[in-house]
Amino acid sequence: QVQLVESGGGLVQPGGSLRLSCAASGSSFSLYAMGWYRQGPGKQRELVAAVTSDGSTNYVDSVKGRFTISRTNVKNTVYLQMNNLKPEDTAVYYCNMGQTYSGSYYPYQYWGQGTQVTVSS
User: 3-class SS at 89?
Assistant: First the structure.
């Protein structure tokens, strides 16, 4: 059973930065793709960024150039560096373990508890 634990959320002013972390249990972390999703108030959960097992990354258009996903397999951890945050980035952010196929990310049913990010002045 895989457990994912997010941390690093908080309240930040527009233009600020946050770094989210997601620590995964288990010994097979390096074999899987990882994704960060978010769910804003009244919105559906959306995939924000994904990183494959070999480190290739992909982003939703709204965060390109501002967010960076990375992973450290020796620590079983995936990160989301968020810069130049905007009020519309306010959401609960979740990490997920999954797989990629033909350029698309497919989530497994392993989710963290989520971490709140609020961007407000």
Answer: helix
Helices (H), strands (E): how many in the chain? 0, 11
pLDDT in tens, 72-85: 999 999 999 999 99
The token pair that represents 121 in the structure block: 């002045």
Q: What mean pLDDT do residues 77-105 have? A: 96
Give me the pLDDT at residue 1, please.
81
Are residues 82 and 67 in contact, defined by beta-carbon separation less than 8 angstroms? yes
CB 2 within 8 A of CB 107: no
Q: Note every long-range contact of 59-63, with CB atoms under 8 Å and residues 24 or more positions apart, other chains counting.
A: 62/88, 63/89
